[in-house]
Structure to design on (332 residues):
């Protein structure tokens, strides 16, 4: 029996990011996802290992991503099996391109929901980049004009803005990871899986309850809010109508302080911004870097990219939504 056949025979199946995932154990975060056709093979095999399994020790790391205080957050290395992605003190993930598999190896005291969060929201976006998709750090919602993406660094308010659309009956396509592809000359967005990761004050302000939430990870107070208010099911892909790069004004202002820059960023400005916000697994892979550059260059020639400066205020969100929808309508 081959490794792949063994994985297929012992898998719980889910659909996420346009892929069918075969998992050795249930991933409760994906239970709301549409069930895939059980007759087809999985695109990726997820194996949740015991903490007793040793995490490989590479001879060197080609990438280290650090937190603002300088603490290493993610280290990446090439190993015999493929790639090792290690979150120090939390877990290690071995991605094997040859077996289309991701092996998750937690540290002894890392809870299961933390491992799942790292897998779904940190590792999978990087693996999708390796597999040929372009992935941007942002959230996206479905509007009558197409998909609308909100991009920006951590803490800029992407998820809160997407949640405000959810509270108004729109569908959230993805939170923190916008997967893009080409469909002919068009750029399309691929939905991730239901749910948003929000702070308690955002949930209270927009939905009035935290009772149906679950913790994201043990090291953050963010909650996983299920996408229960979507108006209609999302298609498998949806055309990208606009991108908004978020900047938060400080100190808080009133809704009249919303600034939506028109015209769009220049193509060069937009391209450099998107390159800085892209997930990249192998920064030494020249073919990937060329592919990413060509894709994003094509994107900025077809999709408007604007800078959105918003006040840090929940009361401003209805006005921001209205401005964005009006802007999208004008761009169509």
């Amino acid at each position: 029996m081959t490794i792949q056949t063994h994985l297929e025979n012992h898998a719980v199946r889910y659909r996420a990011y346009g892929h069918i995932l075969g998992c050795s154990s249930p991933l409760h975060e994906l239970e709301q996802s549409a069930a895939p056709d059980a007759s087809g093979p999985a695109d990726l095999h997820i194996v949740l290992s015991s903490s007793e399994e040793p995490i490989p020790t590479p001879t060197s790391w080609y990438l280290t991503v650090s937190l603002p205080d300088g603490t290493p957050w993610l280290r990446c290395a090439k190993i015999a099996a493929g790639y090792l992605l290690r979150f120090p003190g939390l877990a290690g993930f071995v991605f094997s391109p040859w077996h289309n598999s991701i092996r998750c190896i937690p540290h002894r005291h890392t809870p299961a929901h933390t491992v799942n969060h790292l897998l779904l929201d940190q590792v999978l976006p990087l693996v999708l980049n390796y597999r040929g998709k372009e992935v941007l750090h942002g959230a996206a919602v479905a509007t009558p004009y197409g998909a609308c993406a909100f991009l920006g660094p951590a803490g800029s308010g992407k998820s809160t803005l997407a949640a405000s659309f959810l509270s108004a009956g729109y569908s959230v396509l993805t939170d923190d990871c916008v997967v893009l592809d080409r469909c002919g000359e068009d750029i399309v967005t691929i939905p991730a899986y239901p749910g948003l990761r929000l702070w308690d004050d955002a949930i209270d302000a927009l939905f009035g309850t935290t009772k149906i939430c679950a913790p994201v990870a043990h090291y953050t107070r963010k909650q996983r809010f299920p996408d229960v208010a979507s108006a209609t099911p999302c298609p498998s892909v949806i055309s990208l109508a606009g991108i908004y790069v978020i900047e938060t004004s400080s100190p808080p202002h009133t809704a009249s302080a919303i600034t939506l820059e028109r015209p769009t960023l220049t193509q060069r400005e937009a391209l450099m911004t998107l390159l800085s916000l892209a997930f990249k697994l192998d920064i030494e892979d020249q073919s990937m870097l060329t592919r990413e550059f060509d894709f994003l260059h094509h994107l900025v020639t077809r999709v408007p990219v604007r800078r959105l400066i918003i006040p840090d205020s929940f009361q401003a969100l209805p006005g921001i939504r209205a401005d964005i929808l009006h802007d999208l309508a004008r761009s169509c």
Remarks:
- The first strand starts at residue 12 and ends at 16.
- DSSP finds seven helices and 20 strands in the chain.
- Residues 1-6, 251-257 have pLDDT under 50 and may be disordered.
